[in-house]
Amino acid sequence: MWVTGEAYEPYVGRWSSQVAHRFVRWMGAAPRESWRDVGCGTGAVTRAVLDLADPATVVGLDPSAGFVAYARRTIADHRARFVLADAESLPFADSSASVAVSGLVLNFVPDPDRAAAEMARVVRPGGLVGAYVWDLGDGGMEIIRAFWDAASALDPEARALDEAVRFPLCARAPLGELFVRAGLEDVEVDGITVPARFADFDDYWQPFLGAQGPAPAYVATLPEERRGALRERLRSALPRAEDGSIPLRARAWAVRGRRPG
Ligand SMILES: C[S@@+](CC[C@H](N)C(=O)[O-])C[C@H]1O[C@@H](n2cnc3c(N)ncnc32)[C@H](O)[C@@H]1O
User: Fold this and answer.
1) What distance in Å separates the CA atoms of residue 257 and residue 95, rounded to the nearest whole number?
2) Which of 3, 17, 173, 216 is the most exposed place for a label (fewest CB within 10 A)?
Protein backbone atom coordinates (compact mmCIF):
# COMPACT_ATOMS: atom_id res chain seq x y z
CA MET A 1 0.00 0.00 0.00
CA TRP A 2 2.92 2.40 0.64
CA VAL A 3 5.53 1.90 -2.07
CA THR A 4 5.67 4.62 -4.71
CA GLY A 5 6.36 8.17 -3.60
CA GLU A 6 5.54 9.59 -7.04
CA ALA A 7 1.99 8.18 -6.78
CA TYR A 8 1.50 9.13 -3.11
CA GLU A 9 2.33 12.81 -3.57
CA PRO A 10 -0.64 13.76 -5.81
CA TYR A 11 -3.01 11.62 -3.71
CA VAL A 12 -2.42 12.54 -0.06
CA GLY A 13 1.07 14.05 -0.03
CA ARG A 14 -0.05 17.44 -1.35
CA TRP A 15 -2.65 17.85 1.42
CA SER A 16 -0.54 16.23 4.11
CA SER A 17 2.22 18.72 3.53
CA GLN A 18 -0.16 21.67 4.08
CA VAL A 19 -1.41 20.13 7.32
CA ALA A 20 2.20 19.36 8.34
CA HIS A 21 3.14 23.04 8.16
CA ARG A 22 0.24 24.05 10.40
CA PHE A 23 0.97 21.14 12.76
CA VAL A 24 4.67 21.95 13.17
CA ARG A 25 3.84 25.56 14.10
CA TRP A 26 1.21 24.28 16.56
CA MET A 27 3.82 22.02 18.24
CA GLY A 28 5.58 25.19 19.38
CA ALA A 29 9.02 23.59 19.86
CA ALA A 30 12.10 25.72 20.53
CA PRO A 31 14.76 26.10 17.80
CA ARG A 32 17.85 23.84 17.60
CA GLU A 33 16.01 20.78 18.91
CA SER A 34 16.48 17.21 17.69
CA TRP A 35 13.33 15.83 16.03
CA ARG A 36 12.11 12.35 15.07
CA ASP A 37 9.49 11.94 12.31
CA VAL A 38 7.83 8.55 12.81
CA GLY A 39 6.35 7.12 9.59
CA CYS A 40 7.96 9.91 7.57
CA GLY A 41 6.78 8.50 4.24
CA THR A 42 7.82 10.82 1.42
CA GLY A 43 8.87 13.44 3.98
CA ALA A 44 5.95 15.88 4.43
CA VAL A 45 6.50 16.41 8.15
CA THR A 46 10.30 16.41 7.95
CA ARG A 47 10.11 19.08 5.25
CA ALA A 48 7.82 21.22 7.41
CA VAL A 49 10.17 20.84 10.40
CA LEU A 50 13.14 21.91 8.26
CA ASP A 51 11.20 24.86 6.82
CA LEU A 52 9.69 26.17 10.04
CA ALA A 53 11.30 24.83 13.21
CA ASP A 54 15.01 25.57 12.74
CA PRO A 55 15.92 22.08 14.04
CA ALA A 56 19.40 20.84 14.92
CA THR A 57 18.54 17.46 13.36
CA VAL A 58 15.54 15.53 12.06
CA VAL A 59 15.57 11.76 11.66
CA GLY A 60 12.70 10.40 9.56
CA LEU A 61 11.89 6.72 9.75
CA ASP A 62 9.53 4.51 7.82
CA PRO A 63 9.25 0.79 6.97
CA SER A 64 8.62 1.57 3.27
CA ALA A 65 11.91 1.37 1.33
CA GLY A 66 10.25 3.13 -1.63
CA PHE A 67 9.10 6.09 0.47
CA VAL A 68 12.41 6.38 2.32
CA ALA A 69 14.26 6.39 -1.01
CA TYR A 70 11.90 9.14 -2.26
CA ALA A 71 12.49 11.22 0.88
CA ARG A 72 16.28 10.83 0.58
CA ARG A 73 16.16 11.81 -3.09
CA THR A 74 14.00 14.89 -2.63
CA ILE A 75 15.17 16.31 0.72
CA ALA A 76 18.80 17.34 0.49
CA ASP A 77 19.49 19.00 3.83
CA HIS A 78 22.47 18.27 6.07
CA ARG A 79 20.17 18.36 9.14
CA ALA A 80 17.95 15.50 7.88
CA ARG A 81 18.48 11.77 7.50
CA PHE A 82 16.16 8.84 6.89
CA VAL A 83 16.19 5.27 8.19
CA LEU A 84 14.12 2.14 7.59
CA ALA A 85 12.35 1.31 10.85
CA ASP A 86 9.01 0.57 12.49
CA ALA A 87 7.02 2.83 14.84
CA GLU A 88 6.59 -0.03 17.31
CA SER A 89 10.33 -0.41 17.79
CA LEU A 90 12.14 2.88 17.33
CA PRO A 91 15.90 2.52 16.76
CA PHE A 92 16.74 5.32 19.20
CA ALA A 93 18.00 5.33 22.79
CA ASP A 94 15.78 6.49 25.65
CA SER A 95 15.61 10.29 26.02
CA SER A 96 17.76 10.81 22.90
CA ALA A 97 15.52 13.40 21.16
CA SER A 98 13.59 16.54 22.10
CA VAL A 99 10.53 16.17 19.85
CA ALA A 100 8.90 13.09 18.31
CA VAL A 101 6.14 13.61 15.75
CA SER A 102 4.11 11.50 13.37
CA GLY A 103 1.77 12.52 10.52
CA LEU A 104 -1.05 10.27 9.25
CA VAL A 105 0.56 7.10 10.59
CA LEU A 106 -0.74 5.94 13.98
CA ASN A 107 -3.99 4.42 12.62
CA PHE A 108 -1.95 2.19 10.30
CA VAL A 109 0.29 0.82 13.06
CA PRO A 110 -1.02 -2.51 14.42
CA ASP A 111 -0.44 -1.43 18.04
CA PRO A 112 -0.78 2.38 18.29
CA ASP A 113 -0.32 2.27 22.08
CA ARG A 114 3.08 0.74 21.59
CA ALA A 115 4.00 3.38 18.99
CA ALA A 116 2.88 6.22 21.28
CA ALA A 117 4.86 4.70 24.16
CA GLU A 118 7.92 4.46 21.92
CA MET A 119 7.61 8.12 20.95
CA ALA A 120 7.34 9.05 24.64
CA ARG A 121 10.36 6.86 25.47
CA VAL A 122 12.74 8.43 22.96
CA VAL A 123 12.13 12.05 23.97
CA ARG A 124 13.86 13.49 27.00
CA PRO A 125 11.88 14.37 30.15
CA GLY A 126 10.03 17.59 29.28
CA GLY A 127 10.23 16.74 25.57
CA LEU A 128 7.28 17.02 23.16
CA VAL A 129 5.34 14.29 21.38
CA GLY A 130 2.80 15.07 18.67
CA ALA A 131 0.79 13.39 15.94
CA TYR A 132 -2.06 13.91 13.53
CA VAL A 133 -4.48 11.65 11.68
CA TRP A 134 -7.24 12.46 9.19
CA ASP A 135 -10.67 13.20 10.62
CA LEU A 136 -12.56 10.57 8.65
CA GLY A 137 -16.06 11.52 9.81
CA ASP A 138 -18.57 13.76 8.05
CA GLY A 139 -17.25 17.26 7.43
CA GLY A 140 -13.65 16.14 8.02
CA MET A 141 -11.33 14.73 5.35
CA GLU A 142 -13.84 15.28 2.53
CA ILE A 143 -11.60 13.88 -0.23
CA ILE A 144 -11.65 10.41 1.33
CA ARG A 145 -15.16 10.71 2.87
CA ALA A 146 -16.72 11.34 -0.56
CA PHE A 147 -14.86 8.34 -1.94
CA TRP A 148 -16.11 5.83 0.65
CA ASP A 149 -19.66 7.20 0.56
CA ALA A 150 -19.77 6.53 -3.19
CA ALA A 151 -18.00 3.16 -2.92
CA SER A 152 -20.35 1.95 -0.15
CA ALA A 153 -23.43 2.99 -2.12
CA LEU A 154 -22.32 0.72 -4.99
CA ASP A 155 -20.68 -2.14 -3.08
CA PRO A 156 -21.88 -3.36 0.33
CA GLU A 157 -18.45 -4.93 0.93
CA ALA A 158 -16.83 -1.50 0.70
CA ARG A 159 -18.57 -0.51 3.95
CA ALA A 160 -16.21 -2.69 5.97
CA LEU A 161 -13.22 -1.10 4.21
CA ASP A 162 -14.39 2.46 4.86
CA GLU A 163 -11.51 4.10 6.77
CA ALA A 164 -13.96 5.72 9.21
CA VAL A 165 -15.04 2.21 10.21
CA ARG A 166 -11.58 0.65 10.19
CA PHE A 167 -9.81 3.41 12.10
CA PRO A 168 -11.73 4.45 15.23
CA LEU A 169 -8.52 6.14 16.42
CA CYS A 170 -9.14 8.91 13.88
CA ALA A 171 -11.37 10.98 16.15
CA ARG A 172 -10.83 13.63 18.81
CA ALA A 173 -11.37 11.64 22.02
CA PRO A 174 -9.57 8.37 21.12
CA LEU A 175 -6.52 10.28 19.91
CA GLY A 176 -6.25 12.24 23.15
CA GLU A 177 -6.76 9.09 25.22
CA LEU A 178 -3.94 7.37 23.33
CA PHE A 179 -1.48 10.04 24.47
CA VAL A 180 -2.78 10.00 28.04
CA ARG A 181 -2.27 6.21 28.17
CA ALA A 182 1.30 6.76 26.92
CA GLY A 183 1.94 8.71 30.14
CA LEU A 184 2.12 12.14 28.49
CA GLU A 185 1.07 15.34 30.29
CA ASP A 186 -0.73 18.49 29.12
CA VAL A 187 -2.37 16.51 26.32
CA GLU A 188 -4.32 18.67 23.87
CA VAL A 189 -6.22 17.80 20.69
CA ASP A 190 -7.13 20.31 18.00
CA GLY A 191 -8.49 20.23 14.45
CA ILE A 192 -6.39 21.41 11.51
CA THR A 193 -8.39 22.18 8.36
CA VAL A 194 -6.91 23.04 4.97
CA PRO A 195 -8.81 23.84 1.76
CA ALA A 196 -8.45 21.16 -0.90
CA ARG A 197 -9.50 22.48 -4.31
CA PHE A 198 -9.24 20.23 -7.38
CA ALA A 199 -8.91 21.89 -10.79
CA ASP A 200 -11.39 19.41 -12.30
CA PHE A 201 -12.69 15.87 -11.86
CA ASP A 202 -9.56 14.25 -13.35
CA ASP A 203 -7.41 16.11 -10.83
CA TYR A 204 -9.50 14.46 -8.08
CA TRP A 205 -9.80 10.99 -9.64
CA GLN A 206 -6.39 10.27 -11.19
CA PRO A 207 -4.56 9.99 -7.82
CA PHE A 208 -6.98 7.22 -6.79
CA LEU A 209 -5.50 5.11 -9.60
CA GLY A 210 -2.02 5.10 -8.02
CA ALA A 211 -2.68 2.28 -5.49
CA GLN A 212 -1.11 4.16 -2.53
CA GLY A 213 -3.34 4.07 0.58
CA PRO A 214 -6.57 2.21 1.42
CA ALA A 215 -8.94 3.90 -1.06
CA PRO A 216 -6.60 3.63 -4.09
CA ALA A 217 -5.79 0.04 -3.04
CA TYR A 218 -9.55 -0.71 -3.15
CA VAL A 219 -9.84 0.87 -6.63
CA ALA A 220 -7.01 -1.40 -7.81
CA THR A 221 -9.11 -4.47 -6.90
CA LEU A 222 -12.11 -3.42 -9.02
CA PRO A 223 -12.70 -4.74 -12.54
CA GLU A 224 -12.87 -2.01 -15.20
CA GLU A 225 -16.67 -1.85 -15.33
CA ARG A 226 -17.09 -1.34 -11.57
CA ARG A 227 -14.25 1.13 -11.49
CA GLY A 228 -16.07 3.10 -14.18
CA ALA A 229 -19.33 3.03 -12.20
CA LEU A 230 -17.54 4.35 -9.11
CA ARG A 231 -15.85 7.09 -11.12
CA GLU A 232 -19.17 8.24 -12.61
CA ARG A 233 -20.94 8.16 -9.24
CA LEU A 234 -18.22 10.35 -7.75
CA ARG A 235 -18.30 12.66 -10.77
CA SER A 236 -21.97 13.42 -10.13
CA ALA A 237 -21.74 13.50 -6.32
CA LEU A 238 -18.85 15.95 -5.86
CA PRO A 239 -19.61 19.66 -5.44
CA ARG A 240 -18.65 22.06 -8.27
CA ALA A 241 -17.69 25.69 -8.24
CA GLU A 242 -18.74 27.93 -11.15
CA ASP A 243 -15.35 27.48 -12.84
CA GLY A 244 -15.71 23.68 -12.74
CA SER A 245 -13.25 23.19 -9.90
CA ILE A 246 -14.11 20.92 -6.97
CA PRO A 247 -13.90 22.72 -3.63
CA LEU A 248 -13.33 20.29 -0.74
CA ARG A 249 -11.48 20.46 2.52
CA ALA A 250 -9.14 18.18 4.40
CA ARG A 251 -9.26 18.11 8.19
CA ALA A 252 -6.92 16.34 10.58
CA TRP A 253 -7.04 15.83 14.33
CA ALA A 254 -3.73 16.80 15.89
CA VAL A 255 -2.59 15.78 19.37
CA ARG A 256 0.36 16.96 21.44
CA GLY A 257 1.66 16.17 24.89
CA ARG A 258 4.76 16.49 27.02
CA ARG A 259 6.86 13.79 28.66
CA PRO A 260 6.74 14.36 32.42
CA GLY A 261 9.86 15.56 34.19
C1 LIG B 1 -0.45 8.24 4.91
S2 LIG B 1 1.27 7.89 4.91
C3 LIG B 1 1.91 9.30 5.79
C4 LIG B 1 3.32 9.65 5.41
C5 LIG B 1 3.83 11.00 5.88
N6 LIG B 1 4.04 11.02 7.32
C7 LIG B 1 2.91 12.13 5.45
O8 LIG B 1 2.39 12.82 6.32
O9 LIG B 1 2.72 12.32 4.25
C10 LIG B 1 1.39 6.59 6.08
C11 LIG B 1 2.82 6.17 6.35
O12 LIG B 1 2.83 5.29 7.49
C13 LIG B 1 3.87 4.37 7.27
N14 LIG B 1 3.66 3.24 8.17
C15 LIG B 1 2.76 2.24 8.08
N16 LIG B 1 2.94 1.35 9.09
C17 LIG B 1 3.97 1.82 9.84
C18 LIG B 1 4.65 1.36 11.01
N19 LIG B 1 4.28 0.21 11.62
N20 LIG B 1 5.68 2.09 11.50
C21 LIG B 1 6.04 3.25 10.90
N22 LIG B 1 5.44 3.73 9.79
C23 LIG B 1 4.43 3.02 9.26
C24 LIG B 1 3.72 4.04 5.80
O25 LIG B 1 4.86 3.37 5.27
C26 LIG B 1 3.48 5.41 5.22
O27 LIG B 1 4.68 6.05 4.89
Assistant:
1) 15
2) 173
Which CATH number characterizes residue 83's domain? 3.40.50.150
- C-alpha to C-alpha distance for 221 and 115, rounded to whole angstroms: 30
Give the pLDDT confidence of 55-113 residue by residue, as tens digits: 999 999 999 999 999 999 999 999 999 999 999 999 999 999 999 999 999 999 999 99
- How many folded domains does the chain comprise? 1
Q: What is the pLDDT of residue 180?
A: 98
Q: What's the rounded Cα separation, in Å, for the pair 193 and 249? A: 7
Contact 229/32 with Cβ under 8 angstroms? no
**What is the CA(256)–ligand 1 centre distance, in A?**
18
Q: Which domain holds residue 205?
A: 5-258
- Taken in order 25, 27, 32, 34, is the CA torsion positive or negative? negative
Q: How many CA atoms lie within 13 A of 187 on its CB side?
A: 19
> Whole-model pTM above 0.70?
yes
Would you say the CB of residue 198 lies under 6 angstroms from ligand 1?
Answer: no
CA of 43, closest atom in ligand 1: 5
Residue nearest ligand 1's atom 10 by CA:
105
Cβ of 64 less than 6 Å from ligand 1: yes
Instruction: State if residue 250 touches ligand 1 by the CB under 6 angstroms criterion.
Output: no
Confidence tier at 3 by pLDDT (50, 70, 90): confident
